[in-house]
Amino acid sequence: MIHTGKMDIVRHKEIARDVFEMTVIGQHTTAMNQPGQFVHIKVSDHHEPLLRRPISICSIDQDTLEFTMIYRVDGRGTKLLSEKRPGDTIDVMGPLGNGFPVVATPDIHAWLIGGGIGVPPLYELAKRLSESGVKLTIVLGFQSADDVFYEEQFRELGETYVTTVDGSHGLGGFVTDQMALFEQKPAIYYSCGPHAMLHAVEQALPDVPGYLSYEQRMGCGIGACFACVCPTTTGNGDYVKVCLDGPVFPAGVIA
């Protein structure tokens, strides 16, 4: 069920360079049952900016009716959002989209691969997989040490590796550089990040079932505006809407 309405901000802080963690409380949280979904946020109380901003759900607490989002400031809308303070309210629409299927098979081995602002939706997934007894290997990629966040939170859930492109923190290079060093392949993998990273992950694990969450510019968030369409691999000119059909798709679906 999709809810639309005001939610109260209970915590809000910068956790890395231009990256903010916001926790809100309200009844919307009762409908959040699937890791990997997102919400659409109205960033101001005025008509401008007109469009809402899609932000991934990072973690969910049904007991307190709180959920947490992590977003990066990269434009006017998210800059306005970053100026909100605890006690303020925001207009939230969600949960939206289809998230990650949680494989609840104890002792199987799963890889979680995240890049940049694609890391947050993997956190709730990691919690649920860990609770189910799934063995996790987690690889998180960032540009530099200033951009790293949630490293310790993920370490509490599984074996975690952090990579930075400039080598200033953790392992140097891209996430796929480190994946190539692992001798044992997983039974399943989950990934979220830039399109080029997801394509590289698919190529590195061609025979392993996986689920990929795509980052795409969106307008309406409910499949009406066709702003977020992506071509598929069918070869028939078929397209999918990332906001409605995704953002999570099985590996091999998106071209």
Automatic annotation (TrEMBL):
- A Pfam family of the record is NAD_binding_1
Q: What is this protein called?
A: Dihydroorotate dehydrogenase B (NAD(+)), electron transfer subunit
A biological process (GO) of this protein is: 'de novo' UMP biosynthetic process
How is this protein organized at the quaternary level?
Answer: Heterotetramer of 2 PyrK and 2 PyrD type B subunits.
UniProt keyword list? 2Fe-2S, Electron transport, FAD, Flavoprotein, Iron, Iron-sulfur, Metal-binding, Pyrimidine biosynthesis, Transport
The opening ranks of the lineage are: Bacteria, Bacillati, Bacillota, Bacilli, Bacillales
Q: Which residues bind FAD?
A: 53-56, 70-72, 77-78
Entry superkingdom: Bacteria
Which cofactors? [2Fe-2S] cluster; FAD
Tell me what organism the protein belongs to: Tetzosporium hominis
Family the entry assigns = Belongs to the PyrK family.
A GO term, aspect molecular function: electron transfer activity
Q: In which pathway does it act?
A: Pyrimidine metabolism; UMP biosynthesis via de novo pathway; orotate from (S)-dihydroorotate (NAD(+) route): step 1/1
